[in-house]
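dumping the sequnces here before i forget
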Amino acid sequence: MTAVNSSSRRVAVDVSNVSLTFNTTDGKVEALSDVSLQIAAGEFVSFIGPSGCGKTTMLRVIADLQQPTSGSLTVNGMTAEQARLARAYGYVFQAPALFPWRTIEANLKLPLQIMGYSEGDQSILAKRYLELVNLTGFERKFPWQLSGGMQQRVSIARALSFDPALLLMDEPFGALDEIVRDHLNEQMLKLWDKTGKTVLFVTHSIPEAVFLSSRIVVMSPRPGRIIDIIDCNFPRDRTVEIRETPEFLAIAQRVRTGLRAGHSYDE
Amino acid sequence: MWRQHALLQRFAPIVTVVAALVLIWYVAAVLMNLSLVRGGFEREEAPYTTMELLAGTMEAERPLLPAPHQVAVAFFDGVFGYAPNAPRSLVYHSAVTLSATLLGFMLGALLGVALALLIVHSRVLERSLLPWIICSQMVPILALAPIFIVVLGAIGLQGLLPKSLISAYLSFFPITIGMVKGFNAPEPMQLDLMRTWSATPRQVLTRVRWPTAMPYLFASLKVAITISLIGAIVAELPTGAEAGIGARLLAGSYYGQTVQIWAALVAAAVLASGLIALVGWAERAVGRRMGVRP
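..and the predicted 3d for all of it:
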């Protein structure tokens, strides 16, 4: 279950035997059940599965937004809490979660202000990362003046602005329409190629997962667990056209089979 | 031309409502003062016509209900007829009440926000403070005010401060309740984000909780400032204060000067709407800076 090339590259995230049980009013829910996974630096790993399979919980555990009931994990060789305190990762939520009273520029600067960057550095970084997501010229706008896709690009720029080595993305394009999504997928890929960051990416969409990832982790619900890990090494300069190739369709088919197998436990 | 039209559109509803109220007021004045005026004529055993009777209800010296124009005359006379520091000037009395109101409002706002901060940051304090805060508002202020005045007077506090304290005692409450809600209003996602950046509690407060609470703050300030005014007026009653709108009301009722009472009430109403307008203006100014959607 370890990564193919984890021996040759630095391990970014190491999850071993992690379980997490929620105590809800309806009783205990096993969100994660004995999950183990190693992710090497520079990988793009997608987590795919139906709702309630624990993929978001997985990301939140890695981000130290939630504590596992048992098991251990390291992020960049540190505990999850140390990694969070060291600002080791940028987190992108399903909604842009911009602060409505701040301009786009001020939104981008917020993490930098909190981390104590100088005024000058804040301006330089805000400018650079707005340019990276093609939003130069929108500095003085407020979030409501931007479309949903643009807002999500701002939140991605914000997560990148302090240059974390690790990017955690929880269905960042889930609320967007197909066309915007395709476009952002391509941009995302370029970004990954350019920055060489490790990306952990939660999604519902099979084409999105296959298109973006270097590895796909297929999960299934109740209890949340990993049922398949698929290597997926298309060239880094791929375009959306590869979706029509037999290789792409073969991997998509394997993901779909995995998802179905996970589901059959329920029905 | 279109400009007039726009003005008409804006003010026509207000004018209509005011006109209807004034009409009702006049009818009520006639009905309520009728027996009083008739009694007057009959005591003097003078013959009178219906017209004289009606005219009498409009200009009685101590009517049960003064007619609107009597109140208007008394109000304008009180505002413009005397030097602003004369004891009969409504400007003078309004200023006295206003100073107590504003000081009380500021104290109340500070106390209200401070209590909200304590409550939001500590579950223990929420459990221990909140019941007392709610209890404090269940005692009628009319009963409490004299006690306040006497106790504070005994330790040498007189004049502006005791009135302001009563005013603050009333006005902190809506602010505490509003700000507890406001400080807890940020979306979980926004708080999660702050956590991923390992922001300090202080940064979470100043960067997220405080700005999120702004609309709640202004809503509660609007309630609080009118309550502050009421508190200041009520505080002027038991002291037999010589100055202030409350003192005017009290003196008016001692001597049956209903017109004076009504003029003082109008002054209080004008003061209250001015204060609310002021808070509204501040709210819009802050809103513009915070990019509120127009």
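The domain at 1-88+168-267 of chain A is CATH 3.40.50.300 (Rossmann fold).
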